[in-house]
Amino acid sequence: EAQVTQNPRYLITVTGKKLTVTCSQNMNHEYMSWYRQDPGLGLRQIYYSMNVEVTDKGDVPEGYKVSRKEKRNFPLILESPSPNQTSLYFCASSLVGDEQFFGPGTRLTVL
Amino acid sequence: GENVEQHPSTLSVQEGDSAVIKCTYSDSASNYFPWYKQELGKGPQLIIDIRSNVGEKKDQRIAVTLNKTAKHFSLHITETQPEDSAVYFCAPDNYGQNFVFGPGTRLSVLP
Question: I want to staple A81 with a disulfide (CB 3.0 to 4.6 A). Which of A26, A110, B28, B31 is the partner?
Answer without folding.
Answer: A110
